Amino acid sequence: MNPYITEEKVFKDPVHKYIYVQDQTIWDLINTKEFQRLRRIRQLGTSYLTFHGAEHSRFSHSLGVYEITRKIISQFERNDYPGWPREEKLLALCAALLHDLGHGPFSHSLEEVFDTHHEEWTCNILLEDTEVNRVLRRVADDFPGKVAGVIQKTYPNPIVISLISSQMDADRMDYLLRDAYFTGVHYGNFDLERILRVLRPVQGKIVVKESGMHAVEHYLMSRYQMYWQIYFHPVTRSSEIILRQIFRRAKELFEQDYKFEWMPGPIKQLLDGTITVKSYLKLDEAYVQAAFLHWEDEEDALLAELCNRFLNRRLYKYITMTNPDDTLLEEISLQFTSIGLNPEYHMEIDFPFDQPYDVYRPDSKKGGKEEKTPILLLDEQDRLSEISAKSDIVRSITGLHQGEYHLYYPEEPLIEAGTKLSPALRELFKL
Amino acid sequence: MNPYITEEKVFKDPVHKYIYVQDQTIWDLINTKEFQRLRRIRQLGTSYLTFHGAEHSRFSHSLGVYEITRKIISQFERNDYPGWPREEKLLALCAALLHDLGHGPFSHSLEEVFDTHHEEWTCNILLEDTEVNRVLRRVADDFPGKVAGVIQKTYPNPIVISLISSQMDADRMDYLLRDAYFTGVHYGNFDLERILRVLRPVQGKIVVKESGMHAVEHYLMSRYQMYWQIYFHPVTRSSEIILRQIFRRAKELFEQDYKFEWMPGPIKQLLDGTITVKSYLKLDEAYVQAAFLHWEDEEDALLAELCNRFLNRRLYKYITMTNPDDTLLEEISLQFTSIGLNPEYHMEIDFPFDQPYDVYRPDSKKGGKEEKTPILLLDEQDRLSEISAKSDIVRSITGLHQGEYHLYYPEEPLIEAGTKLSPALRELFKL
Amino acid sequence: MNPYITEEKVFKDPVHKYIYVQDQTIWDLINTKEFQRLRRIRQLGTSYLTFHGAEHSRFSHSLGVYEITRKIISQFERNDYPGWPREEKLLALCAALLHDLGHGPFSHSLEEVFDTHHEEWTCNILLEDTEVNRVLRRVADDFPGKVAGVIQKTYPNPIVISLISSQMDADRMDYLLRDAYFTGVHYGNFDLERILRVLRPVQGKIVVKESGMHAVEHYLMSRYQMYWQIYFHPVTRSSEIILRQIFRRAKELFEQDYKFEWMPGPIKQLLDGTITVKSYLKLDEAYVQAAFLHWEDEEDALLAELCNRFLNRRLYKYITMTNPDDTLLEEISLQFTSIGLNPEYHMEIDFPFDQPYDVYRPDSKKGGKEEKTPILLLDEQDRLSEISAKSDIVRSITGLHQGEYHLYYPEEPLIEAGTKLSPALRELFKL
Amino acid sequence: MNPYITEEKVFKDPVHKYIYVQDQTIWDLINTKEFQRLRRIRQLGTSYLTFHGAEHSRFSHSLGVYEITRKIISQFERNDYPGWPREEKLLALCAALLHDLGHGPFSHSLEEVFDTHHEEWTCNILLEDTEVNRVLRRVADDFPGKVAGVIQKTYPNPIVISLISSQMDADRMDYLLRDAYFTGVHYGNFDLERILRVLRPVQGKIVVKESGMHAVEHYLMSRYQMYWQIYFHPVTRSSEIILRQIFRRAKELFEQDYKFEWMPGPIKQLLDGTITVKSYLKLDEAYVQAAFLHWEDEEDALLAELCNRFLNRRLYKYITMTNPDDTLLEEISLQFTSIGLNPEYHMEIDFPFDQPYDVYRPDSKKGGKEEKTPILLLDEQDRLSEISAKSDIVRSITGLHQGEYHLYYPEEPLIEAGTKLSPALRELFKL
Predict the structure, then answer these.
(1) How far is D124 from D133, CA to CA, in rounded Å?
(2) Residues A330 and A387 placed together within one structural domain of the fold
(3) pLDDT by residue (tens digit) across D395-411?
(4) Domain extent at residue D190
(5) CA-CA distance, B39 to B30, in Å (whole number)?
(6) Where do the HD domain residues begin and end (chains A, B, C, D) (predicted)?
């Protein structure tokens, strides 16, 4: 079998202009049903409710991660850098393309409620009887396992892992550029071409020539701004809270043997914890939204209300608080109950900075898989040093965080309640 | 009621940078469930299967049409042009925002099979008991009817109609820019700011100052290129064909009393022709795709195959022919049947230039509502003339068309059939 | 000598993002004084008086032509196309970089008056005792001659010539993009990356894969628009006319033994036709403008006036005429003389379409060196055909021209003359 | 006199797309010879020797500052903010347009050597008998004085001053965007449209609505990066050093009664300190470069060498040092002298961070006119607070600086000297 396509294939991409496919394996992977399914999973979850342009899918992001990886490797090969193991090229490209394969609909909310992990699903899809698995096995019998190993960060050759999982990997570089493009918030633009030119494969790591330090500073600043302005946007958080509560309520009802008007197989399996790969692959965002469209008419008023809120963008409002005060929260909870609200569903405190907040931390030693290789600079004497040792600006943003928290709640019933609420609460909620 | 919002609202938009909302009515319309539903209808139908960036919705396009209309009117007001009837501003803005409200999922294919028309649905939604209707009635009792009149082109003041329906209207200007942005095909860029500056309201029409002729030429060239490269792209046509056949097959089966595994109310009503506004509003693309995800497992092999093709992007291939030859088509049909294909579903001839091809035609006198006001230039002596009388380049592209047609078919069964097909056919299909 | 630079050098360029230098010879050429001089010659002559952003120099354009050439060749080498003679790479790069080396200040106007030709000066600089010549001779003794041969189109290997001189060469592709960028008139943008990907070296020519036809159409449309909107802009023509008249007047005065207050060596040699390469190299736009700053105070009123007009942008106005009518022109000339104007300097007829108008003409058989290779498409059967045979749109713009002409004149004296001019003339000049 | 132009005039601008002129006074000012002269003064001095795109002039920057000011005021007027004094509009626009009128050729270097100040020249040009003065006096007799007052920051209405002179004024906003555009270094892009929308005139200051804080953070980060990557670029510093030495050497020679081959009036007056406004206006960059082209052939070897270095970009190299050590500098000086160099001209220490380094400093209390109004945020309760009190990120970059210094020197004589230099020096200079 000729591993190369005679005439390279091209996808028009608004972020990278073109995406080039040269290997038959990559082409075949893109055409599998499991990869095509990513067209029905949005890259940014519910962010489109805040930034209406953010309707792009994980399909386009996955192609982008592949393309950046291809460009990095192509630069390494063109310059014949000894630190790059040429035989790992196809593996790295496949892992880049497939790293998000297991994402479910609105993954973050789904995972919190059902305790599933998209990385695990990715590996299941790679290793079980799927079209993707069949394409990979045509390369070698142990190839699906190798790809899974790279994604799980257990593959013995660390440089392959660091391409798609480090503080400045192809995944992150693509999503910052792509999310900036589709939201229209141009804070996320950085000079990709410059960064690609200064990457070097050294001692099992991808490092950066010191002359490129300014470009890296700019990348880190862009990332910082994107986190606070897109990823942690309070309106997006509100929609994620609603979504999580839909899932929670459905689970709760299911466990109480509530009789759903609409309950197809895959969702039932999700609720009772017996879901298979085949069913999981049905569970795209179209499917889940169709469920919400049905549940909007369910008898359970809470589930119906939450679905209505999500579909029609009737999100919870929020107030900002600087100190969590248990007495106050208790009081709010009591008064909410007194006007017919359910505090378990109708009030939620959100600490954005407790999220896996992705400020650059050189010494992140959390243990566990969240830890990412720091960014290393390579000087002219081939010495490596961690970037915050050299850059004032990186040092200055390292560890920054914003301490406030938000209390989310439905505004309409509070307005209706009027003087049933205490003056203190009415002031707090600006009624 | 104060018709203005105290602090104007802003949407971040990648095409226009920001979209500004200053009227309470516009704000309320955007927040209706009928308008929010447009987030679940893609602007370009199945084009995302060809250009993966084209995942943007009619929601963002509708905001864009509103914004361009707002900018045109604001320029007219700032300059106090006597030709602009100031009292029509809110009407024009509402019509711009709502003109696509009645679009169903993958409208063009749906409409061909079920003989529905999105303009009619738009008017139904405006006039029946909906949230949109309630917001509009707050302006005046006859206001919903006026908005419907503008969209149906029956409103007595033609200048209001021409803002959203003419050869260079806000609708078209937004979609060319937006589709160019999201596909990444930059042929569609033209100088919007320049065009906005040279529009003038004269004698019930929006005309163009002659000094802006070059900008208009560029706009028409952009449009020409976008049609041939995006809107008529043969791969997109292929996916539309598949989609239409899914709808046709479902209808056929339904009429044969086939027992569907999955057949929810709104779709059943669509099939038996009894669909109401309430049900129609459920019918977004998420809902229809969820149907396809179920139908992929239907017993009817043809329906299952077509859904599988659509969801997993296994599209029909095509060959290009310059002359439709009945004998040849007959022969193909016969041989297709002989290898177990169904010519009614497995071969389809497509003449892109028979489409409502949107080349600029100054004298289009088709009668009927497709006809659009031509582009008029206003010279320094306030005389009007149709643009192709002055522009060599517009004249040169007027009436251009490409005469070839495409025959679409599934490739896999032909490959499998091998020598069961005649040598002539095998050559024709390059097997 | 190692012909490659150990670490490639990079120039930041707003059009191509980066310009990459990999050969020591290219690096050394850029650092010669003759090449650095191009920083003091504007790319677009007097266009900056119409489009204030157009202040970019031939230095940046020359780097751009080099970079596009480098990219084309790099694509040919990466794909190992047999039609590309690898041994010609350095020659092609040098010719691309140096093709504009002989441009003088405001070349077009200068050349018309003094009958010099920048191509000849380029060859003189390449072949005489200059820094450029020394760098080229380090490659081989006959290398300067080869570079000159490519630029003069006498080099025996035609594919090398066609890289920098054909209907879609690196020169033209760079200037359209660059002039669009610096003027801010984005009509000139086309999809360079796409075009670079579809170029193929075949039979001594650079041809285009047929699948790239639309990108070529777009390129030709961009070119068409740039010509009419930038290059032939009537205000720019006016400034060129003034400039030419300054040169004419200086020559005339010199021939009449007028005693100039300021007349340095190089300009004197230019006027008496004895100019050497060494002096020519002094003659940049700074030098010529300094001359005008002195001549503004010359005793000769006409020269002083023309310099004042040029420096302070007091350009001639123009009226548009559709038919040159000798009787009318005679009459204008008489009346101009009667109010103290000099028709030889104060009226000038301009036919922009008599310029070397660069519409694409497939069959241009003018003989002479202006003729450029047409654009050829390569189909899947490796057959070549001229693009206008396949593209409706190219055919439609081929041969388009605009027939009107302009009469340029100084407006102030006409206003002052008042009724001394006949009513007919006053109407003609809208006084 | 009608103060408004009947049909507004438009300049195409690559940064702001269009620049709109609506007042006859502005139009007349642009057409004065003093304003047109700014076309011959580069915005970024010698930066074009580092970033070849940076060839744009103060003419285009001045139009840009005018346009941003116009947009800010137009927003204030549209919203009828009581804090904006409508009667000051024309004054503010004129001051914005003319604030750079007095810049000489390569101002910074020129001013250091000749102790002139462009602000003073601006005022001289405004107040003496010039075309600009005549246009301004047509508004009112005291109008030129008012414009000068705004530029000198003595005008009694501080809000007018703060438009063109504060930590986030129209001047700075234009140059960051413009310099980013022309160099191609996109670090300088920030969201101008967003910032314009959140500015408010309050208590004699232009302040920022708190909701716009992120946009301001981004602006300050852009500024930070532009300073370190463009404005303080070591290669640009090298060219400025050469330039300063040319001026110093010319002055020194002049004071020694050296007989120059070429010494025209305006330069002579500059050297002997008798320069008038009329002569100063001749002194553009074309004029000065023409002087260098002559001086390249002067008998004084040092002056000739320096001019050659500047014109042909043979700049000094530099080494980086972290601690200025007098003994070492003494030693370098001695050895330089011993090989025929002149330490006064051939070595120069540069501390970029001693420059008027423009990091944002909220509490800059330097006294003197360099001090700029800090950026104030306006919260929903109409309270003002300085931005670094609210923004972690602004606080983190406030006061950052980089402590190293550079030693500039000519490399060629050191290479030639070979072992005549001590081993320590040879190591220091990496010979």
Answers:
(1) 10
(2) no
(3) 777 766 666 789 999 99
(4) 4-232
(5) 11
(6) 58-176
